[in-house]
Amino acid sequence: MRNVRTGVFLPPHHGNDEDVALCMRRDFELVEWLEHLGFAELWMGEHHSGGMQVYGSPELFIAAAAERTSRIKLGAGVISVPYHHPYMIADRIVQLDHQTRGRAMFGFGPGMLVSDAYMLDIKPEQQRARLVEGLDVIVRLLQGEVVTQQSDWFSLREASLQMAPYSFPRPDLAVVTSRTPIGSRLAGKYGLGILTHGGGDVAASWKLAEEAGAEHGNQLDRSNLRVVVSFHLAETRADALAAMRFGLESWMDYLEALNPKSHAETRAKGGTDPEKLIAARGGLVGTPDDAVAFLEALWEKTGGFGHVTMAGTNWMDFEATKRSYELMMRYVMPRFNRANVRRERSFDWVFDRREEFSGANQAAIAKAVADGARG
Fold it and tell me: Where are the beta strands (DSSP E) in the chain?
């Protein structure tokens, strides 16, 4: 058996033709649905431009979603560290940790959208250095240190947090890894979890994190490795492909606005075929059987992981999206985790001895009838 947990990462992507308040309500409804289905966690992104990714503060979303749920963990995925004073990030982490009774999680990254950084007059070459510097301060503050530090983008003077975290020794913390080694090195240095895309070189990212962890005396656990996959499931492939008509092309337009090179490469591989387009980005449109096969191959390729995290792209309409998540939990994860092995063994045992058990039952009934007739 495996014990891989299931989560969702919501950038999210909402069409610019929809009412924003209703989109947000739909996201809250989705969190409640995910909890009902048994998902372990949900991550919400931070973005400030482009129109489709509408949450500037994942922490505010977490605070509201926590009041609508009772079990599912809720993550900031991720906080763009260069955009905030590190002390304020650490202070908000502790507050949310208490408000949610330990259900809040916090991911860190340099900021995905260059347009966000541009508006804040932050150069792209500054973002990763600021992530490294800011995360160090955040971790030290959470550990209870008093920090005095002068930087070119923040200052601290005898700074400490007035409250310890609710979670001991600290809340769940993770870092995003993508095309550079920085995230993996930070995960190893501070003993953090990892959020990474399943279409990338997950094994190499994890290996680098383990090496960095060994240098700093931290032993990483694969249960804290979260692999993000883009799954869009239905009962048949035809139904799944048809559902893509709702939002895939508007998302492709968004991708072109954000990253023309990536858009061109994706189009070259997939054209206008939804299945090929999503496969070109390491995802899947298909059935639960397809998803199980995909995850088995991913497990072998990566060496294993603790969470499979579904990307919430809104390429399907809301009802099809909810059904996709239900298929994942109802049929995919039990098979992938081998959760029903004992049930299957019990069924096979009963089936193999069906004549014996049935015969014994019939004999017992016949004897009872005969004894009753004599009595």
Answer: 5-10, 41-44, 73-80, 104-109, 147-150, 155-159, 172-177, 193-197, 225-229, 231-233, 284-286, 307-311
| 277 & 361 share domain | no
Q: Are residues 182 and 204 in the same domain?
A: yes
Residue with tokens 């990566």: 302
How far from 77 is each of 7, 112, 163, CA to CA, in Å? 12, 11, 24
Q: Are residues 370 and 223 in the same domain?
A: no
Mean pLDDT of the chain: 96
Instruction: Tell whether the model's pLDDT for residue 375 goes beyond 70.
Output: no
- Tell me the pTM: 0.95
Identify any residues that bridge with 106 across adjacent strands, giving them in sequence order: 76, 173
Both 144 and 291 in one domain: the answer is yes
Q: Using CA atoms, how far apart are residues 213 and 190, in angstroms rounded to an integer?
A: 8
Does residue 70 sit in helix, strand or coil? Answer: coil
Is the same domain home to 294 and 355?
no
| Residues 294-313, mean pLDDT to the nearest whole number | 96
pLDDT value of position 349:
98
What does the alpha-carbon distance between residue 55 and residue 27 come to, in Å, rounded to a whole number? 11
Judge contact between 277 and 250, C-beta under 8 A.
no
CATH number at residue 197: 3.20.20.30
Band the pLDDT of 179: cuts 50, 70, 90: confident
Task: Tell me the two tokens of residue 65.
Answer: 């979603």
Same domain, 49 and 119: yes
Query: Which domain range does residue 110 map to?
Result: 5-344
Average pLDDT over residues 327-337: 98
Identify the CA nearest to 100 among candidates 76, 65, 144.
65
